[in-house]
Write a structure and sequence with these properties.
The protein is α/β, with parallel strands linked by helices. The protein is built from 10 helices and 18 strands. It is 28% helix and 25% strand. The chain binds zinc ion (2 copies).
Length: 344
């Protein structure tokens, strides 16, 4: 089968012909219909986030159709539409039994530690394949499994309660989901902070109040918009020390800042005025959980999470097209979300 793979760190991905993956008795083989191209993949290609043994097929946002089911698989059958939980975990260890499988010691991420979805097929344990309702297109099912679910997990980590206010720093793929999910969870007002006018316009269409950080200090603007109070929840989805700082500075008393953007750089805080004095909290948000997927998919099925404007481009399974998309993501530009559709 065809696969677009990371062969050498810092180099463009390459198309390779590789054997079909083998299917264990508790696995399913999935014919890939859609694979999202994610900002994380740019980090893997550049080497800023380490991957498993090379060469490696990237792609962790995957949806498709069950092509073959192992002999012990009972709850999925050939032809079922599925999307994949990208963390492959043991299901039995301490963290797995807590339902916090992102800390499973034997956990592996598809498209990072093992071959992922920039390919025609993928084999995964059946427990990682979540049924995808007919109402949700494959392209949307794919990106639901990363950007949307990471936003959902972050909102759950920040304990967003009905009637609270939320600021979302960075309204790309994660942010557009965060805006809608915050509303689904009962947020009173959602503020979208970005410097890209197109993204701010889209955020406004989804019901957020746009805050253009290119025009002035977003912290001051958020204070103004909340009558001086600040926001109850701020999500940082970019991975920049500046916006992490701003997220914390925007908080109200008892506010929670959820950090989900990845950076290797530190960020500074005035501990007394910005944290202790407000009993504010800074919360790390890592990945998302299998048990969160059914509710997330239900919000999408009902249209409370609408991604139809978020997937703005589809590309074929082609190394050149994938590399160009990753280049654009590295420049913080380009499309909001690009998805590979191997079957066109
Ligand atoms: Zn992703
Ligand atoms: Zn485990």
């Amino acid at each position: 089968m065809k696969a677009v793979r990371l062969v050498e760190i810092g180099k463009p991905l390459e198309m390779q012909e590789i054997p079909l993956p083998s299917v264990g008795e508790r696995d399913v083989l999935v014919r890939i219909k859609a694979a999202g191209i994610c900002h994380s993949d740019a980090h893997y290609r550049a080497g800023t986030s380490p991957v498993g043994t090379l060469p490696q097929t990237l792609g962790h946002e995957v949806a498709g159709v069950v092509e073959e089911a192992g002999s012990q698989v009972t709850d999925l059958k050939v032809g079922d539409r599925v999307c994949l939980h990208y963390l492959l975990t043991c299901g039995d260890c301490y963290y797995c039994s807590l339902g916090s499988e992102q800390f499973c010691p034997s956990g592996r991420m598809i498209g990072k530690h093992c071959d992922g979805g920039y390919a025609e097929y993928i084999a995964v344990p059946a427990r990682s394949a979540v049924p995808l309702p007919d109402e949700i297109p494959f392209e949307q099912g794919a990106i639901l499994m990363c950007s949307s679910s990471t936003s959902f997990h972050a909102l759950r980590k920040t304990r967003l309660a009905a009637g609270e206010t939320v600021a979302v720093f960075g309204v790309g793929g994660l942010g557009m989901s965060a805006i809608q999910l915050a509303q689904a969870l009962g947020a009173l007002d959602v503020y979208a902070v970005d410097i890209n006018p197109d993204k701010l316009r889209l955020a406004e269409k989804y019901g957020a109040v746009p805050v253009d950080a290119a025009r002035g200090d977003p912290v001051a603007e958020l204070r103004r918009l909340t009558g001086g109070r600040g926001v109850d929840v701020a999500l940082e989805l970019i991975g920049l020390p500046l916006t992490m700082r701003q997220a914390v500075q925007s908080l109200a008393v008892f506010g929670r800042a959820g950090l989900a953007g990845i950076t290797a750089k530190p960020f500074e805080l005035y501990s007394y005025t910005e944290l202790l004095g407000r009993e504010a909290e800074v919360i790390g948000c890592s990945d998302h959980l299998l048990h969160e997927m059914p509710l997330l998919l239900e919000y999408a099925r009902r249209g409370q999470l609408d991604l139809s404007d978020v997937v703005t481009r589809t590309v074929p399974l082609d190394a050149g097209a994938v590399n160009e998309t990753l280049d654009a993501l590295e420049r913080f530009g380009g499309e909001v979300r690009t998805v590979i559709t191997p079957e066109g």
